[in-house]
Design a protein that fits this description.
The protein has about 325 residues and is mainly α. It has a single domain, classed as Orthogonal Bundle (Cytochrome p450), CATH 1.10.630. The strands form 4 sheets. A 3-stranded antiparallel β-sheet has the order 1-9-6. A hairpin with a 2-residue loop joins β3 and β4.
Length: about 325
């Protein structure tokens, strides 16, 4: 996957994928993203409680990335379960439930489906991202099939997990800090700021590794050229030298953060889509359920990499 590559191959591959994630292209899909969120919330009509992770976040983000990639809706669940199993490695409970079956049976099937989708788009181009990847060119070169398949998996992994993780954590924070939720209900124009604060406090992934290209001293620590450096985003996003009271959830903060990476060539290409989904999900959920409140103990995945809730039980309406 190009996420772990260096130039020049990284730059060629990312340029091809970037064609499908320009801010303009993403913004054109806001109505569709909002319609998906509303359909998912419609399924909760008549219910008093739900699990934000499984009942709101997962089905919404799965259908959004599925729509972008040209995947039929009936395949959303199988792709989501595959990505959950792959990303939340280290969580014995989830691996016991899903891991063996998915790894042994579904990965080959999904690779087969992906290859079939690529062949179909090569023969009959559409306007989805898979078609963009199949037909995009940079300097006269197109992606090879294995590059499309691995890129497809990368986009599906990020699309299924990252926004789900941050949205669920944002809802948790708002239920734990009702005064902050009240600010958003009173002034929905603060929701984009709340999105950035949720990204700062709850980045979907804990870390990535990079290699130092030169000797440097950082915070009193000597780093040599060639050393492997872990970029620990939950730490950098709560840097006391950059943020006042960094452990406080403040929807008016509108902070800079590193939830999408530390900038440069490896900056997340799905940034515009993630921000759109998070904003729309918060707008629609709060508009429909302004009294949403915790209804049990949130549970986090036991993972060295994925920073996400596995369950967030809530009561959708106030008592009485």
């Amino acid at each position: 996957m190009f996420i772990g590559m260096d130039p020049p191959k990284h730059d060629r591959l990312k340029a091809l994928f970037q064609r499908g994630f320009t801010p303009k292209r993403i913004a054109e899909h806001e109505d569709e993203v909002r319609a998906i969120a509303r359909r998912v919330l419609d399924r909760l009509d008549g219910r008093e409680t739900c699990d934000v992770v499984d009942d709101i976040a997962q089905p919404t983000v799965s259908r959004v990335i599925g729509m972008f990639m040209g995947i039929p809706e009936e395949d959303d669940r199988s792709w989501a379960e595959l990505m959950n199993a792959m990303l939340v490695f280290g969580d014995d409970e989830r691996e016991a439930i899903r891991g063996k079956t998915i790894m042994e049976r579904e990965i080959p099937l999904l690779f087969e489906r992906c290859s079939k989708l690529i062949a179909e788009r090569r023969e009959n181009p559409t306007d989805d991202l898979t078609s963009v990847l199949v037909h995009a060119e940079v300097d006269g070169e197109r992606l090879e099939d294995h590059e499309i398949v691995m890129g497809f998996f990368l986009l599906m992994a990020a699309g299924n997990d990252s926004t789900k993780a941050t949205f669920s954590a944002a809802v948790m924070a708002l239920t734990q800090h009702p005064e902050e939720k009240a600010k958003l209900l009173g002034d929905p124009s603060l929701i984009p700021s709340a999105v950035e604060e949720a990204l700062r406090m709850f980045p979907a992934f804990g870390h990535f590794r990079r290699t130092a290209t030169r000797d440097v001293e950082l915070g009193g620590q000597q780093i040599k050229a060639g050393d492997k450096v872990c970029l620990w985003y939950p730490s950098s996003n709560r840097d006391e030298s950059r943020f006042d009271d960094p452990d406080r959830f403040d929807v008016e903060r509108n902070p800079e953060h590193q939830a999408f990476g530390a900038g440069g060539r490896h900056y997340c290409l799905g940034t515009a889509l993630a921000r759109l989904e998070l904003r729309v999900l918060l707008e629609e959920t709060l508009a429909r359920y302004p009294d949403i409140a915790l209804d049990g103990e949130p549970k986090w995945a036991a993972s060295p990499f994925a920073n996400q809730l596995t369950t967030l039980p809530v009561r959708l309406r106030g008592a009485g």
